[in-house]
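In the laboratory, one determines a bound structure by crystallizing the protein with its ligand and collecting diffraction data. In a computational setting the workflow is compressed into a single prediction: the sequence and the ligand go in, and a structural description comes out. We illustrate the idea with 2-OXO-4-methylpentanoic acid.
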Amino acid sequence: PDVSFKYDDLKVALAAPYQLQRKPEAVDLGFGKYFTDHMLKIHYHRELGGWQKPEITPFENLTIHPAAKALHYAVQLFEGLKAYRGVDDKIRLFRPDLNMHRMNLAAKRSGLPMFDGDELIKCIVRLVQIDQEWVPHSETSTLYIRPTLIGIEPTFGIVAPESAMLFAILSPVSAYYKTNSDGAVSIYADPSVVRAFPGGVGNRKVGSNYGPTIEITSQAAKLGHQQVLWLFGPNQELTEVGAMNIFLVYINEEGEKQLSTPPLNGLILPGVTRRSILELASQWEDITVKEEVITMDRVIQLNKQGRLVEMFGAGTAVVITPISNIGYMETNINVPTMEQEHPVYQRLKDTLLAIQYGHIEHPYAKIIT
Ligand code: COI
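The predicted complex, in structure-token form:
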């Protein structure tokens, strides 16, 4: 295994005053349109002993060889986490250790070098501290952190790259997904396409899971749906929705309210929000929580019986997005998510946001300023 880079070796080169950019207003920032003044870079060169010293530099373009493996074979992975400015003006990260763990799993699968996640968290914390004025003073916006690892060795062999680069860039963001006027999304399920398959990389955050969703998502948009519901297999199991994990709330056989999401069977990205929702709701006494296979037939049956209560997507970018409609094989399935008086999705969203913005103290939140 590779010896990790160390935070203690970090070199910082601050931007000169004339290089600093004007910060955008914290309304309607879009998602990943603006970038901050600095970035983190860590090179890996096997012939130089592996990981080099981390550097924070002014934000700049990268120069990479046109034969870099990342550009040809998608030898690449990324992460997404956020820095939140709390009501106490302190900046918090949300469970960054889980992103680091997932990043190393993706690195292993892609032949990219692994590293000590705690060391990367320390480097990212320093980067956010340096650019801390970019963390929006708003509870509807955040600073999105995008750590990325790319294989840059310029040769065409499909083998582990001799050189790689880990970088992290920061972007002040507001909401990611377009919704209907009621804040919910309509989703489109086309059984002829899959996002992931057993033994594949659906459970790793690699770019190659996302690019191939663009065309089908724009087809869905033409039919009036904002997201794609990804089904898998002969039983048309629900896997994910858009770039989010999917959840159902229904009345189970025992007459209890149940929160369900598909199990981590290799087809599902192990979302940090997903895990947090499962852990938080498990402590609530009025709801049963289960990871279980959910088929389209089951959804249709539950809905016919009036037992389907809510559906929603969950992820770092959006937190939680309620689903009000599914377009499926020439039919429209209306899901009564937005008709509930005290919806589970809203209670979960409020709890997560309260932790992230420091309304309540919670071990998930890591204070960094
Ligand atoms: C998420 O954070 O929910 C995502 O999957 C981010 C997406 C832009 C790739």
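Residues 96-109 form the longest helix (14 residues). Keep in mind that any predicted model is a hypothesis to be tested, not a measurement.
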